[in-house]
Write a structure and sequence with these properties.
By secondary structure, the protein is α+β, with helices and mostly antiparallel strands. Helix content is about 35%, strand content about 20%. It has an 8-stranded mixed beta sheet. The protein is globular. It binds zinc ion.
């Protein structure tokens, strides 16, 4: 499976390189469209590390959170409840966010702490119980950067910052309000200041439009 993905990835990278090259000749619209279509369709390579069981896995997830059946089974198993060994597919939007993170931090491993949790004592309203949540970190990436990126980009989500435990909680909650919190000394502190700052319009942060990198 992997060689095919890598081939796809290489082809996509080459095509994007072609489109983005500094050549003065305009790139034909069809070529650009092809790049866009291919880019949207190609899966993202997601490197995972199970922090509890010390197991690594690399899976291919599409940007919309879909996977082939074999990968779906593997992902369901990786993210199973650790107390009960029960498995349940993780919400597609949560997986789409995971693929997004993997693409943004290309090549880095996402170390996950917890996903599906259905053991006795887990709150009935927990997004972990509903297989919509993932707790994770990326070595070498500041938790604050992950937290702010997700909170700024997505809506209908819960984003929790666990500075002492060193992980970020993310969940999707289609019927609930966005919720941001900081977990400190065993307590969730809602409406944290970082949440306000991360979603503040750019115009309020800088008086002049910032130059866009790479354009
Ligand atoms: Zn969590």
């Amino acid at each position: 499976m992997l060689p095919v993905i890598l081939k796809l990835k290489l082809a996509t990278t080459a095509a994007i390189g072609l489109a983005a090259s500094a050549s003065p000749a305009p790139v034909p619209a069809e070529a650009l469209a092809m790049v866009v279509v291919e880019r949207a369709a190609s899966p993202i390579e997601v490197k995972l590390f199970d922090e509890n069981l010390r197991v690594s896995a690399t899976v291919a997830i599409r940007r919309d959170g879909r996977m082939d059946d074999e990968t779906a089974a593997e992902v369901k198993h990786l993210f199973r409840c650790r107390q009960t060994n029960r498995e349940r597919p993780i919400a597609r939007k949560t997986l789409a966010m995971l693929a997004d993170i993997a693409e943004k931090y290309d090549g880095k491993t996402i170390e996950f702490v917890s996903a599906y949790r259905v053991q006795r004592g887990e709150s009935p309203t927990s997004p972990h119980r509903d297989a919509r949540a993932l707790d994770f970190r990326i070595r070498g990436v500041q938790l604050q950067a992950l937290r702010d990126y997700l909170w700024r980009k997505y809506s209908e989500v819960g984003i929790g910052w666990y500075p002492s435990e060193q992980f970020i909680h993310m969940d999707t909650r289609p019927t609930l309000h966005d919720t941001a919190w900081t977990f400190l000394s065993g307590v969730n502190h809602y409406h944290p200041y970082w949440g306000e700052v991360a979603r503040r319009p750019l115009s309020e942060k800088t008086p002049l439009p910032r130059p866009r990198a790479g354009v």
